[in-house]
Specification:
Largest sheet: none
Number of strands: 0
Helix content: 55-70%
Shape: elongated
Strand content: under 5%
Number of helices: 11
Oligomer: single chain
Radius of gyration: 30 Å
Distance between the termini: 123 Å
């Protein structure tokens, strides 16, 4: 008896772009990088005032490493005789120009530049003079206070300064970061500010930030409830009819 069982249809194979692929209809990885919008990966602009080179450098190197392109910013001459390599270098150069501020662009942009030349120039701007830059950053770190900033914004500023100091070979320990966080809190946290140093409950900066954020939200919720209760009480008293006035002739 013939076997009527038919094998399931084979799943269509989907070609995966890889370096060196040249099959019809398949775009190779080396070709695909030229159509990438770098701003879809890096959502901010490198700026001297923001001190965000550490963040950009980390993300940029991850992207370059993913596409096996790090040599373009680490080697002085990464095979510049190869036409494909020259094209890759120009693409990376455009990525760099796209992710920096106009001020930095005017400072570093030069004719016939390479990705390596512009990248090292940017690195020297932000980390070249490390000792003097570290003095400036340390002063900024130790004088920073929360003021009118939200807890999240204040913590972001502290973490950014700490990261930049680490780039200048002056790392801030986790405990020192938590201590500075507490010392710079606004008067809103005056009671909590006096209590926290005596409570060794934070092992990480993120734990401290989350605790303060929740405390702020809790206080805001309590204040809102108290305000609503006061308004209800005020409305009730205003709707109460006044006692009749007795006139004596």
């Amino acid at each position: 008896m013939a076997n009527d069982t038919h094998p399931p249809p084979a799943s269509p194979s989907i070609p995966i772009p890889t370096a060196g692929s040249s099959s019809s209809g398949v775009v190779s990885l080396s070709q695909a990088i030229h159509s990438i919008n770098i701003k879809s990966f890096i959502l901010f602009t490198l700026d001297m005032q923001a001190n965000n080179f550490s963040k950009l450098k980390t993300l940029f190197l991850i992207i370059l490493d993913h596409f096996n392109l790090q040599s373009h910013v680490t080697d002085l001459e990464p095979h510049h005789n190869d036409p494909d390599c020259v094209k890759e270098n120009l693409t990376i150069l455009m990525w760099i120009y796209t992710t920096i501020s106009h001020e930095l662009l005017n400072l570093v942009m030069k004719p016939s530049s390479t990705a390596y030349g512009i990248w090292t120039h940017l690195d020297s701007i932000f980390t070249g003079n490390k000792p003097s830059h570290a003095i400036y950053l340390k002063n900024k770190f130790h004088t920073l206070t929360q003021g009118n900033l939200s807890v999240v914004a204040y913590c972001c500023k502290l973490q950014t300064l700490a990261n930049t100091l680490a780039d200048c070979d002056q790392p801030i320990s986790e405990r020192a970061l938590i201590h500075k966080l507490i010392c710079g809190l606004s008067t809103w946290f005056s009671i909590l500010k006096r209590m926290l140093p005596a409570l060794p409950i934070f092992t990480t900066f993120m734990q401290a930030r989350d605790y303060l954020t929740m405390d702020k939200a809790s206080q805001a919720s309590s204040d809102k409830l108290a305000t609503e209760s006061a308004l209800v009480a005020l409305g009730t008293s205003s709707n109460t009819a006044p006692p009749p006035t007795i006139r004596i002739n």
